[in-house]
Amino acid sequence: MADPTPDSMKEFRQMIWHNIVEISKLSFVDYFPVLEKIDPQGIRRRLTSHFGETFELFGRLIDERLVLRILGKTKAEEDVTYVHKPFDLNYYDNQFKKI
Q1: Which top-level group of life is the source organism from (predicted)?
Q2: How far apart are alpha carbons 10 and 91 in whole angstroms?
């Protein structure tokens, strides 16, 4: 990840672990698709919650990195991380010129 603090890295690991646990559970819906709308075990509800938290964490990390970049507090080697690439229009301009 971008520049993970120990807290954010621990939070990320927990979120991924919760997602893996929920995805690996057997569901009645797998065997009885009629029950899909009911979600009798609540797996879809919990997965929605876990994925939402994961996306929020990614959003926070990206926002932090963008603020640091705007303030000029990032190191030169950090500017080549993949978090910045979608926001760096010059990078994409140079990549398309090479083609």
Answers
A1: Eukaryota
A2: 31
Cα 44 to the center of its chain, rounded Å:
18
Contact predicate 54/19, CB 8 Å: yes
Instruction: For the beta carbon of residue 91, count every other beta carbon within 10 angstroms.
Output: 14
Q: What angle do CA 14, 17, 46 make, to 5 degrees?
A: 90
pTM: 0.64
- Closest by Cα among 56, 53, 59 to 22: 53
Per-residue pLDDT tens over the stretch 26-77: 888 889 999 989 999 999 999 999 899 989 988 888 888 778 777 876 655 5
Return d(Cα 58, Cα 83) in angstroms, integer: 10
